[in-house]
Amino acid sequence: MVISGGVRALLRRARAVLRSALTTFVVLTLTLWLMPGVAASDIVDTLGLVVLVAVVGAVLRPLLLVGITALGGWAAMLLGVVTQIAVMVVALRLDPGNRISGLPTLVTAAILAVIVAALLDWMADAGSDDTFVREARRLMRGVRRRAAGRLISLRRLPAGTEPGLLIIQLDGVAEPVLRWAIRAGNLPTLGDWLRSGSHTARGWHTGLPSTTPASQAGILHGASRQIPGFRWYEKETGKLMVSNRPRDAAIIESRLTDGQGLLRDGGVSISNAFSGDATTSLLTISHAALPGRTARGWAAFMASPYGFTRALVLGGAEVVTELHQARLQRRRNLQPRVSRSGAFLALRPASMLLRDVNISLVSEQMARGAPVIYCDLVDYDEVAHHAGPARPESMRQLESLDRMLGVLRRLTPEAARRYHLVVLSDHGQSQGPTFRQRHGETLEEVVGRLADEALVVSSGNLSMVYLTRFPHRLRQAAIEHAHPALISGLAGHPGVGVVVVQGEDGPMAYGSGGSHRLRDGVVVGLDPLTPYGPHARADLLRHQSAAHVGDLVVISAVDPATQEVSAFEELVGSHGGLGGWQTDAMLVHPASWTVSHDLDGPDAVHRQLVDWLVMLGLRKPEAVPLVAVETS
User: Fold this and answer.
1) How far apart are CA 554 and CA 464, in angstroms?
2) Which residues contact 440 (CB under 8 A, 6 or more apart)?
3) Which residue ranges does the chain devote to CATH 3.40.720.10?
4) Which CATH architecture has domain 130-153+168-429+582-615?
5) Residue 300's pLDDT is what?
6) Which residues of 451-476 are buried (b: 16+ CB within 10 A; e: fewer)?
7) Is residue 153 pLDDT above 50, yes or no?
8) 501 near 465, Cβ under 8 Å?
9) Measured torsion, CA atoms of residues 173, 255, 246, 445, in degrees rounded to the nearest 10
10) Which of 111, 395, 546, 568 has the most other CB atoms within 10 Å of its CB?
């Protein structure tokens, strides 16, 4: 017997209603049982309350969704939680049995019910994203029907035929880590793409600095040389710039943009450092705002029982998981390791929440038909910093991101365009004990012994030293005149691999046993760049041309046996400098697409992505300037 699409949809809806009713029944039964002083009730009474919750939700949720959409931003987050609690409070207040009375008791019971419901849904969906997909599809269909002016029609709109490009950044995933995880079978979505031949994977070299802001400045704007590190000091203004601080990010973007960014023609930036000249920017640091009234995906996520409230409850479970994993590292004396308490405890649930919000926002923009969407997912990078890039808990985060790619692939039939998926990373990570752990002191303390006026600004195992009383960048002779022991003292420290300074004949790289003149490659003694691979000279030379680079640039040593580096920050997994896998980023793209650029540096990746946009008809080719020809 052939079942029509309409009947299948009706059956799916019936199963969803039945599941919702069963979940509500269990939730109410447990809640009433757990509440002290509440009289027992029979099954019929509880079933009546189930119906009441459904009716109240059907009436109240759409009204509150309107309010959430109108308010946007932080108010939407607050009202999203209130929505779930309010539905339960009203239903319990209208309960004919009047088993719970008094507003404080009602609110307590409602909160308990919401928590139990979130946990039950999580257990029911363990290993599956079906509920999340179902909610996202409902959102997308609603967006498309509104765009088509069909507010009441229940017919499914046909899939879009015009091409679109969806670019997902998996923050911090090194190309060797990706390939290893795929071979191990831990990334079934990406593994299926590669094994089926629909996509291919390749590495690309990030150069220096290997940080998200520098890479995104290049990928999104083609201007990576504006950023010398994750943070830096500007002598002209006396200001310390921190690239993930919204006010600083806005200033930085004003220097990057020429109006020709990757996302300029109707594109959307989601959770990035910079906008790429996008028409729509959501959760983008340089724009420093939560999604507003026009982002229905934000409102729908906040109002849905499977959205913000569920993520909030499960975020608490992430904190417990983090505490357990940290304890296991301590009991096993796993090395290297760093403290995983404090602010990092909040990062685990926050990154999980942000991931789900991002996918909701991406699905909405796919339904709207945005020509190109660029979204950064940070889960893996945040955990790997503190756990280690190849540790089990980090790999679990990578597996969850692979599931999200599967969710996006499942949502493409609902989109207003035929989206092609590209997955890339902005850098990798390198593991190792911190500089302080290995040598018993920080780099700041080392520099303080050698010079009493220097500011040390670090990004992973890259550090820049600024002599702040001088208003301009100093050459080697001036530094040695002011502080005779500074350069030699740093170069001779066992934890330092390379010190770079501007010499009379251009940039010089010094190590404990020799020097390397970067401009022409002349080496005296032992080459300090050998442990950092074949790109090191070009990377350091390019970095010396970056804006606001330090008077001295310091890179920590690389362990030749393990390829471990020592971060100048308290991170067991780090990036920013050179050594290990931190400069080994990855790019996964449709196999039939031609790669016409040598992918050396994020600016080259920008040019390649622009070429693909031109190929898809989403961007006009750049005009070639005419050369005037003199005639006699």
Assistant:
1) 6
2) none
3) 130-153+168-429+582-615
4) 3-Layer(aba) Sandwich (3.40)
5) 61
6) beebbbbbbbbbbbbbbeeeeebbeb
7) no
8) no
9) 70
10) 568
